[in-house]
Design a protein that fits this description.
Blueprint lengths: L7 E4 L8 H15 L6 H20 L5 H15 L6 H14 L10 H8 L4 E6 L3 H11 L5 E6 H4 L6 H11 L6 E5 L2 H10 L3 E5 L12 E2 L10
Parallel strand pairs: 1-2, 1-4, 2-3, 4-5, 5-6
Helix pairs in contact: 1-4, 2-3, 3-4
Keywords: Hydrolase
Protein name: 2-haloalkanoic acid dehalogenase
GO molecular function: (S)-2-haloacid dehalogenase activity; 5'-nucleotidase activity
Length: 229
Amino acid sequence: MDWNNITHIFFDLDHTLWDFERNSALAFRDIFEKHEIELDLEAFQKIYKPINFKYWELYRNNSVSKEALRYGRLKDSFDSLQFEATDATINLLAEDYIHYLPNNNHLLEGSLEVLDYLFPKYQLHIITNGFEEVQQRKMKSSGIWPYFSTITTSEEAGVKKPHPQIFEKALSKSRALPAESVMIGDNLEADIIGAHQFGLRTIFLNSEKEQPAVEFPQIQKLKELRNYL
């Protein structure tokens, strides 16, 4: 496949460039300490990770609101661990989590190196389902903000990936054509299939070594992007 006509690269943010799992664990460590929540962090993270994933799927499909996601993922995690917390405490923790999360700035292995490599050659962009007020803070605190020409969030577009309208919005902002664009992300449905159906090339960051149902170009580490771009 010829990649020479690519001029625009669209990245997902969480789990693709920004190390969500590591930064999330640090945020919970800080807020549990602040509010004297006596839970083993490792045990909590083990329960929280799949519950959070489930809620993001529901949010992507418009089955829960942003507020319900923020409350429900904590409530369900505490219930699973048989940890009693009032609604007021859960809402306070949910609010503090969003505040603390962008304070941590760990990126996935190779993120800065690959951005340094791509930046002189391509226009770089972000398309994210994450919340508007948090994503920009994440990018600024982690130092990757200057690399990107445009950032398109689902709240701005009014729809979430994989809806075609968010890709239409992102390409319109960037003045890019689908045929000269590639989408890189870790979520097969939202990032890869969604972008592919809108006419973009795609590269699946298969860091969890999942077996995709459809064959797309895929990498396990960001540094492997050099094989394509």
